[in-house]
Design brief:
The complex is a heterodimer. By secondary structure, chain A is an alpha+beta fold. Chain A has four helices and three strands; from the N terminus they run αβααββα. Chain A has helices at residues 2-26, 33-42, 49-61, 84-108; strands at residues 31-32, 65-72, 75-82. In chain A, strand 2 (65-72) and strand 3 form a beta hairpin. In chain A, helix 1 (2-26) packs across helix 3. Chain B is mainly alpha-helical. Chain B has a two-stranded antiparallel sheet. Chain B is elongated. The longest helix of chain B is centred in the C-terminal third of the chain and has 43 residues, at 295-337. Classes of the chains: A alpha+beta, B mainly alpha. The interface between A and B is medium-sized, with 15 and 18 residues.
């Protein structure tokens, strides 16, 4: 019981670390929260809504995302897209990620 | 959709009062509607209440959802906690010391007391310490909680990490490193001394009962109080020095010189006290005047009090002089090693 709980916690921490990079990488085109959630899920990254929505707001506050409300199908939706600042940051984050992956591969081999 | 609207309102009530709260509510509503639509398409059934219930149950309680948006879940967060604990320790120690001194003064001034009266005074003193400590804790926690809530980390630079230089570990630990609590205790103690000598000098005296009447003999003579202004200057200078050390966190040449100056001044005061008229009123004559005091005992005690006082002043002057020599030698050593 305690073991599976620890495993869940560690997996959660691992995922949390990559979500920012995953979100920024998928927002070159406008997405609203739920569509982004599905987009990530379709590619194999399951993210909890309770994690994604506050993260989107935080990234917007940090200036890495921009958002706009649009009325679609009689329903207002908030669309997010990567900002100029986010675009500058993304390649650097990708490079960092590549570095981490190569180091961990060596370590775990 | 009724349930979704109510759910969103419930989440909204629990959100922090920040800009964009309405935005969060709208986004949540839109997401839940999208999710519901998704489910109706998959199940090929129109949305009903049972489907909404399932969806909301999966999404989580309004409290849990609101918590994910709450940027400050701490009353006092990790960045402030070490300082909170440090200030708390200092203040509680000062409050305990202050209240203990007040209780001790009460015991002395109200003596002689019956055992019950003594217990009552001590009991009240303990209760005062407990209630004052709880009040101090509450006030400090309140101030820190307000700072935590309203001062963003960037505006409140408690993070000294950037300034920290690992090479500081290479230096031998210096015994004269300043401990903040020592300086603060010294300041509190000096304040207490100043207030007693200036505003409540009657505390320092012998209180006794003859018949049903309380009598008080002041111990300190007028000659002592003539030098009080000079002593006040020395005490205020001590407080300034403690403040300087507290701010700098270490001894510097300026604080070293200031400390030596204060000590020289204290020796001068000591000289005046020693060579002038006696600073205490306890003499063989004054003791003989007390009803029922044995004449021979009065003679011995009076002489002891007079000579003892002079001896203590001379000893203190001697110790201060040694301290000055030590300080000067240390300063010269540091200068030559620099």
């Amino acid at each position: 019981m305690a073991n599976s709980e620890s495993l869940d916690n560690v997996v959660l921490e691992l995922r949390r670390g990559v979500i920012v990079l995953a979100v920024l990488s998928q927002l070159s085109e406008k997405q609203y929260g739920y569509s982004l959630l599905k987009l990530l899920s379709d590619q194999g990254l399951e993210v909890d809504q309770g994690t994604l929505y506050p993260l989107l707001r935080r990234l917007e506050t940090q200036g890495l995302l921009e958002s706009v409300w649009k009325l679609e199908e009689a329903r207002p939706r908030r669309y997010y897209v990567i900002s100029a600042e986010g675009k500058k940051l993304l390649p650097k984050l990708k490079k960092e990620w590549a570095g981490i992956v190569s180091v961990m591969k060596k370590m775990l081999a | 959709m009724k349930l979704i609207n109510r759910y969103v309102t419930e989440v909204g009530k629990r959100l922090p009062l920040v800009k964009g709260r309405k935005d969060i509510e709208n986004e949540l509503r839109s997401t839940l509607e999208d999710m519901l639509e998704d489910r109706t398409q998959k199940s090929d059934k129109p949305a009903d209440e049972a489907m909404e219930v399932d969806l909301l149950k999966e999404y989580g309680s309004p409290q849990k959802v609101a918590e994910t948006y709450n940027p400050t879940p701490y009353l006092i967060g990790p960045r402030m906690f070490p300082m909170f604990i440090m200030i708390l320790k200092i203040v509680i120690a000062a409050v305990t010391l202050g209240m203990t001194i007040v209780t001790a003064i009460q015991v002395v001034t109200l003596s002689p007391m019956t055992g019950m009266e003594l217990l009552k005074v001590i009991g009240e003193g303990l209760l005062n310490i407990v209630s004052a400590s709880i009040a101090a804790f509450g006030n400090i926690a309140l101030v820190f909680a307000l700072i935590e809530r309203f001062a963003p980390a960037s505006e409140f630079k408690l993070d000294e990490d950037e300034k920290w230089d690992p090479t500081s570990l290479m230096k031998e630990p210096e015994p004269e490193d300043i401990k903040a609590w020592e300086q603060i205790l010294a300041i509190v103690f000096t304040f207490i001394v100043i207030s007693i000598f200036n505003f409540n000098p009657q505390i320092i005296g012998i209180n006794y009962m003859t018949g049903n009447e309380w009598k008080a003999i002041p111990i300190l003579s007028e000659a002592f109080f003539r030098w009080l202004p000079l002593m006040n200057i020395a005490w205020v200078a001590e407080i300034l020095l403690n403040g300087m050390l507290l701010r700098a966190g270490k001894w510097q040449i300026s604080s070293g010189l200031f400390s030596i100056a204060i000590k020289v001044f204290q020796i001068v005061i000591g000289y005046f006290l020693l060579t002038g008229p006696s600073i205490i009123t306890v003499t063989a004559e004054s003791l003989k005047a007390i009803e029922g005091f044995d004449a021979e005992a009065a003679q011995i005690l009076g002489t002891m009090a007079q000579q003892g006082t002079q001896g203590i002043i001379a000893l203190v002057m001697f110790l201060i002089a040694i301290d000055i020599i030590k300080s000067v030698v240390k300063m010269f050593r540091q200068k030559t090693s620099m």
